[in-house]
């Protein structure tokens, strides 16, 4: 009895303890195992951030899983996925479950994303759901020795073409010549660099130092040149004999030649740090972009939109790529060709006409009268690549007398109106005279037509009190000169600034003072006269049309100007062009600088058929000898029929 009475309290206490314990846990003796959903969602959240510290694993640690994800994501920069639990498969009472995760990567600005699903095994261990880790939890079929990487794929850059679709600026074969340091090292590398530099005509000391400082596996570029360049074709065998010298063929966007319309077309090169920063993620270091000219202005149109590929990359211990495979690709979008009005035959003729002008800047522009299309815009080698043809700002000299004539016509003058042509004329203390050698038999009261044909300065300046500066500016605008328009290319349409200075106003009549023009400007002036209405320039086809001037040129006014400019060819300073069928012309000189006597810019403008031409020479004696030869050469080579 004593033993039995002692057992009962012990059993009661144990049962009581069990009841209290289960009550405090909020469970019952018959509660179900936990659901696997929370563990799956924790995994999805961890993959989204790259931190799997909150995930329990059955076969690894959170730290190791996080380290693998960090390595896998490294090639993607700051890009992270959106991962969510889309499906959960679990039979009640089973200690296994399968979670399906949906992953979305916003890899580009396009509406297309990289999406995929992965299946994750989970196991119930010690009454807790744990993830069975595998690399393909991150991406389908991802191996333990692989990581993710994105590479962009730019399309082939679109061409710049002529009006007929002929390629002007396109990919052409070039050769990159340099020293391959995997084949030569030490003193031999620098010696080879010096020898190669001498053949290529580059700075030997600088190139040798560059080669010496480069890494042991570097290819050090010395020169990139067209594959057909005589420098390479002539020295090819000698280059091959230099130890470590290597010539690598590749493609590069180039014009027909080094100089052909180069200031207009521009060039293509690697994006600068500034361009990359301004692109807001569109560009990366190493991307090829337009760096000048039309290539720069229309870069977005020409380069297109890059595609991309997400890769699974296997690397060696030194970081080198051993293998890679594509997981996702987004196609690139090709750029649109830029179509120009340039006529390749006309441009080549203009380039040839100026080819020998190495001592000073020269330019020639040809415009189609009926349309305003720029057929040619060339600069000579002395211009050093400056955009002088379309954007030069120089005093137009007596070619501006075409505008002065129009201003006088609007005051009632005709080609026969007499103007006083004197040896000299003084305005507010400043003496003006005619050019040296002006024919004495053309002095006196002469018709305005004669004054233009023989370019009498004093005859036009004598009208300075009758014609205001505003009158001159408006006449110039009617001829396509002097307005600030939003041109779709780098260009200058001239300037006739307002002034209260009487001397400056007088000088404006003969295209000096502060009057400025480009060869394009003066070609448009001639074209407007020939057409009988204001001609606007067209270079980039498809660009918005430029607005007409406030007071367009009237056909009756233009007829007077044509009569005058015809007299220049028949009896005046333009007779040299008559044998080539030129119908209209005007010469011009403009003094500049501090020499005594000062140097002069020289001009010649001309019109034949449907073509208006302006030629400029920075320094010359007169338009006949300084600029007319360029037009002669051009017209002999270019005859559109």
UniProtKB/TrEMBL annotation:
InterPro entries on file: Beta-lactam/transpept, Beta-lactam/transpept-like, MecA_N, PBP_dimer, PBP_dimer_sf, PCN-bd_Tpept
PROSITE patterns tied to this protein: PROKAR_LIPOPROTEIN
Transmembrane segments: none
Signal peptide segment: 1-25
Organism superkingdom: Bacteria
rRNA processing keyword on record: no
Penicillin-binding protein dimerisation domain location: 155-321
Localization per Swiss-Prot or TrEMBL: Membrane
Entry keyword set: Membrane, Signal
NTF2-like N-terminal transpeptidase domain mapped to chain residues: 64-145
Domain Penicillin-binding protein transpeptidase: 363-606
Entry keyword annotation includes Zinc: no
Family: Belongs to the transpeptidase family.
Identification of the protein by name: Penicillin-binding transpeptidase domain-containing protein
Organism annotation: Terrabacter lapilli
């Amino acid at each position: 009895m004593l033993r039995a009475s002692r057992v009962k309290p012990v059993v009661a206490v144990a049962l009581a303890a069990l009841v209290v314990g289960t009550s405090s846990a909020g469970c019952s003796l018959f509660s179900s195992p936990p659901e696997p959903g929370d563990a799956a969602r924790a995994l999805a959240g961890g993959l989204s951030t790259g931190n799997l510290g909150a995930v329990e694993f059955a076969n690894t640690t959170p730290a190791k899983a996080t380290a693998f994800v960090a390595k896998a994501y490294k090639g993607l920069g700051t890009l992270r996925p959106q991962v969510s639990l889309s499906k959960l498969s679990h039979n009640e009472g089973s200690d296994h479950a399968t979670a399906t995760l949906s992953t979305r990567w916003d890899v580009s600005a396009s509406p297309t994303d990289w999406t995929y699903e992965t299946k994750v095994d989970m196991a119930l261990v010690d009454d807790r759901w744990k993830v069975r880790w595998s690399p393909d939890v991150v991406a389908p079929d991802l191996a333990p020795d692989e990581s993710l990487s994105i590479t962009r794929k730019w399309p082939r850059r679109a061409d710049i073409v002529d009006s007929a679709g002929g390629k002007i600026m396109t990919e052409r074969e070039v050769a990159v010549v340099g020293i391959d340091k995997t084949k030569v090292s030490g003193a031999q590398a620098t010696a080879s660099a010096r020898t190669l530099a001498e053949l290529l005509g580059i700075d030997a000391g600088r190139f040798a130092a560059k080669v010496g400082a480069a890494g042991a596996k570097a290819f050090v570029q010395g020169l990139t040149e067209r594959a057909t360049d005589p420098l390479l074709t002539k020295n090819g065998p000698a280059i091959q004999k230099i130890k470590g010298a290597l010539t690598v063929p590749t493609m590069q966007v180039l014009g027909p030649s080094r100089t052909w319309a180069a200031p207009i077309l521009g060039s293509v090169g690697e994006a600068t740090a500034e361009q990359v920063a301004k692109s807001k993620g569109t560009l990366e270091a190493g991307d090829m972009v337009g760096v000048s000219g039309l290539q720069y202005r229309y870069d977005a149109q020409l380069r297109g939109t890059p595609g991309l590929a997400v890769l699974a990359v296997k690397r060696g211990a030194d970081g080198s790529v051993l293998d890679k495979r594509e997981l996702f690709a987004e196609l690139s979008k090709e750029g649109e060709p830029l179509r120009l009005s340039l006529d390749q035959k006309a441009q080549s003729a203009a380039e040839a006409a100026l080819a020998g002008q190495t001592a000073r800047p020269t330019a020639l522009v040809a415009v189609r009268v009926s349309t305003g299309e720029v057929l040619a815009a060339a600069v000579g080698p002395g211009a050093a690549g400056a955009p002088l043809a379309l954007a030069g700002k120089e005093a137009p000299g007596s070619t501006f007398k075409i505008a002065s004539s129009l201003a006088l016509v609007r005051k009632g003058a005709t080609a026969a109106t007499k103007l006083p042509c004197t040896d000299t004329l003084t305005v507010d203390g400043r003496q003006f005279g005619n050019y040296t050698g002006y024919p004495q038999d053309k002095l006196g009261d002469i018709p305005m037509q004669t004054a233009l044909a023989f370019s009498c300065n004093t005859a036009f300046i004598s009208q300075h009190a009758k014609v205001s500066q505003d009158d001159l500016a408006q006449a110039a605008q009617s001829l396509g000169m002097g307005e600030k328009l939003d041109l779709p290319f780098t260009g200058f349409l001239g300037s006739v600034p307002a002034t209260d200075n009487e001397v400056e106003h007088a000088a404006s009549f003969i295209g000096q003072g502060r009057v400025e023009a480009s060869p394009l400007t003066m070609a448009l002036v001639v074209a407007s006269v020939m057409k009988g209405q204001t001609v606007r320039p067209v270079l980039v086809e498809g660009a918005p049309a430029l607005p007409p001037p406030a007071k367009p040129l009237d056909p009756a006014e233009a007829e007077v100007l044509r009569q005058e400019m015809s007299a220049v060819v028949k009896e005046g300073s333009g007779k040299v062009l008559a044998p080539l069928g030129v119908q209209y012309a005007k010469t011009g000189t403009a003094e500049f600088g501090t020499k005594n006597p000062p140097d002069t810019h020289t001009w010649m403008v001309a019109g034949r058929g449907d073509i208006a031409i302006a030629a400029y020479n920075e320094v010359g004696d007169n338009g006949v000898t300084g600029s007319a030869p360029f037009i002669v050469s051009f017209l002999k080579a270019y005859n559109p029929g």
